[in-house]
Amino acid sequence: xxxxxxxxxxxDLGRIVIPKEIRRTLKIREGDPLEIYxxxxxxxxFRKYSPMGDLQEFASQMCEAIGSNTGCIAAVSDRDxxxxxxxxxxxxxxxxxxxxxxxxxxxxxxxxxxxPGENLxxxxxxxxxxxxxxxxxxxxxxxxxGCVMLLMGENKQPLAESDQKLAxxxxxxxxxxxxx
Length: 180
Prior knowledge:
This protein is an alpha+beta fold and 180 residues long. It is built from five helices and seven strands. The chain has helices at 20-25, 56-70, 90-93, 100-108, 161-179; strands at residues 34-38, 44-48, 73-78, 82-86, 112-113, 131-140, 143-152. The strands form two sheets. It has a five-stranded antiparallel β-sheet with strand order 4-3-7-6-5, with helices on both faces. A two-stranded antiparallel ribbon has the order 1-2. The protein is elongated and about 55 Å long.
């Protein structure tokens, strides 16, 4: 645990304000769910809750199936970071923050397929090695949960329309799983 030096008081309704700088750094938006943990020594920890986290193992299996059958790098992200991956070293992408471009794309809730001549969209902030080939938002009851992606590595060969349809199908399936 890292000390911030910031102290806040609990108000008469039991609320605590999380400072704007911390919310911005951790990408906590208005309405985001937070999980609350307690420690034996009396500490309280707030952690962003990701409903996609419950499907992480399932998403990993989906990525492996897609990647094995297409030869593509398959990834699934929640709203903050990549949670499942197949076809690239996990240490390079898993748990890394989504790129700002990916965040904007997901917020539009539109499917995406790279076309030659367009600007490349990085999958995560910390890597200039992997770019979106196709992306499909995961929606559950109208809420954005994450994204299914097929990534282009160093060869940067555009992916086919069938790859885009595959990503859309998997995103739709994961969205339905979230509703159950």
